[in-house]
Design a protein that fits this description.
Layout: H1 2-16, H2 21-83, H3 86-91, H4 94-101, H5 108-123, E1 127-131, E2 137-140, H6 158-164, E3 169-174, E4 181-191, E5 194-204, H7 206-210, E6 218-222, E7 228-231, H8 246-254, E8 278-284, E9 287-297, E10 304-310, H9 311-438, H10 442-470, E11 478-481, H11 482-500, E12 503-506, E13 514-517, H12 519-536, E14 544-551, E15 555-561, H13 569-572, H14 592-602, E16 606-611, E17 617-626
Parallel strand pairs: 12-14
Antiparallel strand pairs: 1-2, 1-5, 3-4, 4-5, 6-7, 6-10, 8-9, 9-10, 11-13, 13-17, 14-15, 15-17, 16-17
Helix pairs in contact: 1-2, 1-9, 2-9, 9-10, 9-11, 9-14, 11-12, 12-14
Length: 634
Amino acid sequence: MVYVLRFEMVCYYVRATSETGREQISIARTIGRLVGGLVAVGLFIGLLVLPFMETKILKRANTSAYSQLELVRESLDQRIKRFAPLPQLIAQQSSLLALLKDAENEGLVPFVNEQLRLLAINIGGTDVYLIAPNGITVATSNYRSERSFLGNNYDYRPYFTDAMGGAASQFHALGITSRERGFFFSAPVVDGTEVAGVLVVKMTVDMIDAAWGGLDNEIVVADSNGVVFMASQPEWRFRTLVRLSAAQKEKIETSRQFPIGALTPLTQTLDVVGNDGVRMDVFDGDETVPYYTQSVPVALRGWHAIVLTPVSVIRTQTWYAVAYWGTSVFVLLLIAYLIMQRQAQRREVERLQMAERDLLEKRVNERTLELNTVNRKLVNKIQDHQATEAELRNTQKELVQAGKLASLGQMSAALSHEINQPLAAIRAYAGNAVDFLDKDRTGNARENIVHISDMTDRIARISKHLTNFARQSGDTLGAVSVGDVVDEAITLVMPKVRKTGAEIVFDRPDTDYTIIGGHLRLQQVVVNLLSNGIDAGEAAPTAIVRVRIDATPDTVSIFVLDNGPGLAPEVADQIFDPFFTTKEAGKGMGLGLSISFNIIEDFGGKILVANHPDGGAEFELVLQRTHQKPEAIT
Ligand code: ADP
């Protein structure tokens, strides 16, 4: 059963979590099945407990029946005990004997009648009457009533014959005159040793059993013959619980105890009396109604009080109990189901949360792994990049060097002329000096030697600049004097200037501006710009290159303007590319501007170019200004 419920529960949960119409129908079906299942379980358990219930309810009914019986017996016994001694007491009244002796005495009858009436009132509304030995009633408490016993003959009643025999007696019967059932208690009225008459006290029972009606149970009091004398059901009175023998019937008839026609069997069931829980089927008109019976003996010998509980009442109560138990089981199962469902729901939510967490964790791990891989790749790339950059720097250095050497190569013809010229002059001065000394013209010889000394100074200066220029420059940056750099660069290009007949115009400003950079590298850039300017002015009658320096608070600019044709638009974009040249083979390598560009960028500066409105190209080196003192040349 638990498995079935669990299965239903899962179905319900699965369906309850979906929202489409079809699934809602399915939920309704599941709920229907569930409720049906629970009801079936409830019914099944109810049926299981049915016999047990019936016994239990019967037992309870028995208990209450017994207490009812006790009450009936008590009240009956008490009445009988109260009334039984009364006739003997009353019989001792002298007036009774007086009347019996003088029955014709008309004055005495009313007196005794009234005396008995008052007595009857005193003992509780019961008839009290006096019977003469011939059976005729001579005085009675009900003398005023229409159904007065006065003059009635009761010689057939056993209570009369018994009392006439000298013994107190008791009898029960349906009153002939009163049509009331009653107990008759009688005693002889004695005159010495003779019985002069009989005093009777009648106790009616109609009022007693009339109060028993309206209950679930029926109550019956049967006499020793098994005739129902008192009953909660008026129709059951005088019916018999056992079949009467002919002798019994005759006795009843003779004593006119009960109407003979009423003595029909109430039931065929035997052994009803004294056997508790026996089923008794009562013939009630056309149908037979079953009862359970309980009985107790009452104070009169052979008498029994019986309680009859309808089997249908027990059945109904049993069904109620079963329904109650079934419903309780149903409700308990429902509660258990709801609790289980809640737990299952909670477990499911936890499971989903767990799965989600696991998935998230897995994703995070995957992403972390991916990121690690990407990171590693990035690190590798950065390392590659750094290696490439280092390589590039080396290459650049080599290029700078190569560029310088290329410039030197280009300048070598002019340089050899520059050096050869003072050398030839030195040779001439020396030869002349020797002649002057031979002729003792020491003054002239001295002049020549001074000239020779000037010439060697000039050669030494050129050589020094060349050495500096050719030297591989360091990477470090420092404060550099812009004026000095331009002066030295002009000196370096002087051989080319002389050779080409060009002109360099430089108005060195009074302020010695300093910038951040490398002395030799800046010198190399300026030499390059001057050299290109001279080349550009080739076509002009005289190539003129103008150099000027300008400054802002943060920058210093070196302008180099030539009088050449300027830069053609298609060339302007490429002039900073390595190996781009428009010059004929042997004259240019196309490295000068590309190296210059890198050098100026290394300084944190810019190299700009534009065609001047008056013609010619103007290069501008924009450099970071500093106010530190220029450092030693590096
Ligand atoms: P090279 O001088 O060896 O050709 P550069 O890199 O110094 O190499 O110059 C590259 C090219 O830029 C030159 O070939 C020339 O066409 C152009 N150029 C450079 N300076 C000037 C200038 N002042 N006027 C016109 N063109 C120039």
